[in-house]
Design a protein that fits this description.
26% strand, 14 strands, seven-stranded antiparallel sheet, alpha+beta, single chain, Jelly Rolls, 27% helix, five-stranded antiparallel sheet
Length: 290
Amino acid sequence: MRTSVRKWCFLAAVCLSSVLPTAQATFIPFEVGGDATRASIQGTVDAFRNAVGNPNNGNALGPLGSGRREINWDGVGGVLTTAPAGTPFPGFQANRGALFTTAGTGFVQATQSGLATTFSNTTYNTIFSTFSDFRLFTPVGSNITDVTFFIPGTTTPATVSGFGAVFTDIDLATSTSLMFFDANNNLLFNDFVSAGIVPDGSLSFLGAVGNAGEQIFRVRITTGNSALGPNDGSGVDVVVLDDLIYSEPRALLAVPEPSALALVLTALLGSIGLRRRVAVEKTYRRALRA
């Protein structure tokens, strides 16, 4: 009987190990708060690019086995400001596998002067700078941007193993953040972006790469503590985005919900208990016949 119980315990362990997710590993962060020059954050950005993979796959159709994707908002030559796009914003879903949504009314891609005009705030001419010329990106009516991923060239949901973003004009240490979630909406990573080291036009970067097969299904980007608008009062920290960099989107692998794991465990333990009861009853019957 003991051998049988041990056997069933071993089988239970094997089955559970096949469905339980890998223990959460620490993401490797790449972060810097710089001044208004590209050089102040360039080394950290390049290190992150190497970590998520080479080459830059541009608009190539997926799935691809390696490399990364980048969005710098500058691809429409000569257009300084795009008309505000709605939400969801699918402009980069087909060619780079990223879909953007916000609780606001949509998104805008614009130069500093374009932002000043769009939001009727002349200070935006001077408080923002660019990492890659010449446009920046921001939600309209919100400071929250959610990014989900797809195999480029398809509508197949996907995940990435690393994600990073360039920000401009972070003044407060806890106003801006990145949060990573898996397909079951479990939080994988959460960190604030470092503030810049100059009052206006600073550039900052935060990225993180999983080192144990983590699957990032959704990224939430919080830019500042307020949406852009005509009036920026005391304590308001408005922040906008520049380049986004992320690993090549891969097919989403099924991850069982915790409730499903509990059912599996319950069934296995029930089977073990039943085997033990049957064995005890057989032993008892043999003892009565003796």
